[in-house]
Amino acid sequence: MKHLLIAAITGLAFVMVTGGVRAVIANGSMYQAAAMENITPSTSSCGKGPVNPPNSATNNLEEDVKDWGVFCDLGTPTWDLTNVTAPALSGRSLRCSITGGQPNSHIHCYRNLLSDPAASVFVLTMPFYFTSTTTCNNQGEPSIIQALEFTMSKWYQGKRYEFALQWENVAETPGDGAPQWRYWNSYEWVPFSPKITQCLTAGQWHTLTLEGEIVNGQVHYHRFAITNTSHILDLTVPPVLDSAHGDGLAVAIQLDGNFQEDAYDVFIDQVSFVRKPALSVTKQANPSPVQDGAQLTDLHHPCY
Q1: CATH no., domain 6-117+127-182+238-272
Q2: Distance CA 243, CA 154 (A)
Q3: Most buried pick, 23, 27, 45, 125, via CB within 10 A?
Q4: What mean pLDDT, rounded, does the chain reach?
């Protein structure tokens, strides 16, 4: 699998190239769509940029589908992106779906945000829920979900600082340890050491929280939490040169299709992206488990 997340920014109105989503009936399951317009592919290309211009929002980033865009990665998937009222944690979620298309192609659902030059500490919280039921690593029958990717990025002065995690459900290389979590080292997906293995369950909410910081011009992964467990990462990777794009921020989720591009949906709700200046995350040598969806960073830490 190849990770791809591109943004084209012109002044304050910028379009980031990324992911996709689907609609009302998913693999035999009916969901109630909110009374709003959905985002559909353009006739000239697979992806489509956000309708609304970027802003500085922090919380409930999924509330308006028109704030989101889709980029098609590695092929030509079909997709749909819409707000729905169920399943949801707060009355309205965002559904990003693969509906079919070219095998092993992916959709990247993203939201652009305005530049924040002073921000160096970032916390992404993204509750997610997926259908339909999938096996893990093709055990028993082919897995519908190949992988899910979660990312937060800052573009500033010709560089991109990207923090990204991947739930690799099906092994990219046989025997590589899937299902497992991997991180993006600015060039490729890398397993954690020791490995963080996990088989996620469909039909329930999971909350991913990712903390990172730009330290001495480098991308520093601090920690992440998923399904009641917190993991200290303490990993540093370089930014990448990206002089083609202007300053800005973005968050995204990517759905990776399998060998026959089976349809599936991912719902996200109560998405937040907190950014702060200066050092504001405190390392813990032996972190204790946290409740699913708990905020890991103390947003009133005196270092702010």
Answers
A1: 2.60.120
A2: 13
A3: 125
A4: 82
